[in-house]
């Protein structure tokens, strides 16, 4: 075996295996995958686009033979955390977005087995077409992101299965020598049980494949939450920054006391909410290019956005939601202003009514209400692009036509996801997005 990386020889072997069109050289890979919202640059040695999961073992063997590092992506939309870019230079990207099959669905228990290229939108269509009453584990990253990629990064959502890797019951992966990893139950022929019982038998090893790149995961089984009888959003504001600490404690109490009914609660600062609602005040910045506090306050007043906004979800029967609402009112007493509970249909009515109000006030209120309406569709398990406009807030050309893609469009964004101790859902000690705080940092273009 040669000691040095031999990228040209590896590319030649991959072309024989996959065909020319599925293998990109360094320059082509740079063009297709090099852009990233964090401003980080990487030198790419190439990219591979297999269309059949059976090709992956041989792809990995070729990589090992020529000592060429591979970096797998599912849809490569890890915006704010590095996009499609590998953690080091000179890797060949293994783009698995062409593997788009939904391999199995248990319509009774709601467990779906998907390949890496299956997106939130594809699963939503599949569930709609079959009339299956289950929720897509949506995220703010939008309809065109992979379910598998997000779960492997220990992504987070606010539908009932908030911890997306926590909902993974089984997976299959290709290891560095090209051999296949399967859970012990699968190896023993118990595929049906393996999909339902994550712990299987013997040591639990599937977690090794999260945030690690120890193997190339070719399929995961995900437990979906059953669509509840009722979905209701919880919305409240904090008038002052000084209320934040108490609010975090109260949110923690709510999560501890109402597990299973409250999906998740996000606390978002004024910048975060205005970035999804109002135009960027490009002509009113200070000498450092920042929004002066008085301008922020004025925008907050105009768009009815307070220093902090709490947004959460309640799932359950009518009776359960009514009881939870009473508990939440009590828990947030004295700190929350404008505490509202809204169903998706209420939000649509609100947006419709606001747009009938005359003048700029009506228009601004209409915009805030429309954002709220789309957020409610999201928490009802229907993926959409509500959160993505925040990446374009400082973008001089704004959003173009078609699906949004902040990396392709040259937006600047880095996520800063602090951990803070919160209630512990049964299966989720700590995920990437855990904790109640989710401030974002929109960088200038
Ligand atoms: C406005 C906005 C809102 C967002 N909201 C959320 C949110 O609510 N929740 C959230 O979790 N994230 C959120 N994100 C962050 C991010 O965009 C999503 O997590 C997105 O789903 C990740 O991209 P992806 O699914 O294409 O995964 P990929 O980019 O394909 O992969 C992510 C990581 O997993 C590894 N990986 C992927 N596939 C494999 C595989 N088959 N085998 C081994 N390793 C693999 C990759 O190497 C990479 O490190 C948001 C981003 C933005 C811009």
From TrEMBL:
It comes from Thiorhodovibrio winogradskyi. InterPro entries: Cytok_DH_C_sf, FAD-bd_PCMH, FAD-bd_PCMH-like_sf, FAD-bd_PCMH_sub1, FAD-bd_PCMH_sub2, Oxid_FAD_bind_N. This is 4-cresol dehydrogenase [hydroxylating] flavoprotein subunit. SUPFAM superfamilies: FAD-binding/transporter-associated domain-like (SSF56176). Coiled coil: none annotated. It holds the Pfam family FAD_binding_4. Its EC number is 1.17.9.1. Keywords: FAD, Flavoprotein, Oxidoreductase. The gene is pchF. It comes from the Bacteria.
């Amino acid at each position: 075996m040669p000691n040095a990386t031999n990228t040209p020889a590896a590319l030649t072997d991959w072309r024989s295996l996959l065909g020319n069109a599925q293998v990109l050289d360094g320059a082509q890979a740079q063009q297709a995958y090099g852009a990233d919202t964090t401003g980080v640059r990487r030198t790419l040695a190439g990219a591979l686009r297999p269309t059949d999961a059976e090709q992956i073992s041989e792809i990995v063997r070729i990589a090992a033979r020529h000592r060429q590092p591979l970096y797998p992506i599912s849809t490569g939309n890890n915006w704010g955390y590095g996009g499609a870019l590998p953690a080091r230079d000179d890797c060949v990207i293994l783009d698995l977005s062409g593997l788009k099959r939904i391999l199995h669905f248990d319509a009774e228990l709601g467990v779906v087995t998907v390949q890496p290229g299956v997106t939130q939108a594809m699963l939503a269509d599949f569930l709609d077409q079959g009339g299956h009453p289950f929720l897509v584990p949506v995220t703010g990253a939008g309809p065109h992101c992979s379910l598998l990629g997000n779960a492997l990064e220990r992504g987070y959502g606010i539908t009932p299965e908030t911890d997306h890797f926590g909902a993974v019951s089984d997976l299959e992966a290709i290891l560095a020598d090209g051999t296949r990893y399967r859970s012990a139950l699968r190896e023993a022929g118990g595929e049906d049980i393996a999909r339902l019982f994550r712990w299987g038998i013997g040591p639990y090893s599937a977690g090794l494949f999260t945030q690690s790149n120890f193997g190339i995961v070719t399929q995961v089984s995900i437990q979906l939450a059953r669509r509840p009888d009722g979905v209701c959003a919880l919305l409240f504001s904090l008038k002052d920054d000084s209320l934040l600490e108490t609010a975090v404690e109260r949110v923690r109490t709510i999560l501890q006391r109402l597990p299973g009914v409250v999906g998740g609660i996000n606390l978002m600062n004024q910048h975060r909410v205005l970035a999804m609602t109002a135009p960027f005040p490009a002509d009113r910045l200070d000498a450092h290019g920042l929004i002066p506090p008085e301008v922020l306050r004025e925008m907050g007043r105009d768009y009815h956005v307070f220093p902090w906004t709490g947004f959460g979800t309640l799932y359950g029967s009518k009776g359960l939601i009514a009881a939870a609402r009473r508990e939440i009112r009590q828990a947030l007493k004295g700190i929350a202003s404008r505490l509202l509970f809204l169903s998706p249909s209420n939000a649509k009515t609100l947006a419709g009514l606001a747009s009938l109000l005359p003048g700029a006030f009506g228009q601004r209120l209409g915009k805030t209400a429309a954002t709220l309406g789309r957020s409610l569709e999201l928490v009802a398990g229907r993926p959409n692009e509500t959160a993505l406009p925040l990446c374009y807030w400082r973008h001089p050309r704004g959003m173009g036509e078609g699906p949004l893609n902040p990396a392709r469009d040259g937006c600047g964004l880095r996520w800063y996801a602090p951990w803070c101790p919160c209630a512990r859902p049964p299966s989720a000690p700590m995920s990437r997005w855990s904790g109640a705080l989710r401030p974002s940092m929109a960088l200038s273009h």
